[in-house]
Design a protein that fits this description.
The protein is of the alpha+beta class and 172 residues long. The protein has two domains: 81 residues, no CATH class; 81 residues, Immunoglobulin-like, CATH 2.60.40. Helices cover 19% and strands 33% of the residues. It has a four-stranded antiparallel β-sheet with strand order 3-4-9-8, with no helix packed on it. Strands 5-6-7 form a three-stranded antiparallel β-sheet, with no helix packed on it.
Length: 172
């Protein structure tokens, strides 16, 4: 009797890649907690809270994408920042880009937002909360068309695309 056929040949590749990502995250999180413990013992630790998280989704290319957020970096030797990196999501529509950012515990007037043709910067600096995020946008936008709303701790920014399309180049 022959072994059963695999119905989803790419399935194993995706799960293998996810396993590698989770193993790497587990190592990084363990190292971060050890660094925080040492900093607290040495008296060099900053005032909390310590925030670290990640968001995972499958992108349009069919591959998993992991985005980290918080004020604790997984890069070795990097200091714990009092600026939190908010969880964000970039959604590309037909005519516009939407950026959703979680910014709990602040007022609308505290948000400093700036846009260029290819990036968006979110900054909040209050005595109780500090957030900072620089996003590289997936397409060029018209910064002067940017509209933003903030409700229940969620910032939504809409930017119109420039409409510029790539030009097909024939290879000779």
């Amino acid at each position: 009797m022959s072994p059963p056929k695999k119905r989803w040949p790419f399935r194993d590749d995706i799960f293998d890649e996810l396993d590698r990502e989770f193993e790497e995250m587990e190592k990084n999180i363990s190292r971060m907690f050890e660094d925080m413990r040492k900093a607290s013992i040495d008296g060099q630790g900053g005032e909390g809270p310590y925030v670290y998280g990640f968001s995972m989704r499958v992108g349009p290319d069919g591959r998993p994408h992991v985005e980290e957020f918080g004020n604790v970096s997984d890069r070795e030797g990097e200091e714990i920042s009092m600026d939190r990196e908010p969880l964000t999501d970039v959604i590309e529509g037909e005519k516009e880009i939407s950026v959703i950012a979680e910014l709990p515990g602040i007022e609308k007037r505290d948000i400093d937002l700036s846009a260029t043709e290819d990036s968006l910067r979110i900054r909040v600096d209050t005595p109780k909360r500090r957030y900072h995020k620089e996003l590289r946008l997936p397409v060029r936008v018209k910064p002067d068309t940017t509209k933003a709303s903030y409700k229940n701790g969620v910032l939504e920014v809409k930017l119109k695309k420039t409409g510029e399309k790539g030009v097909r180049v024939d290879v000779e």
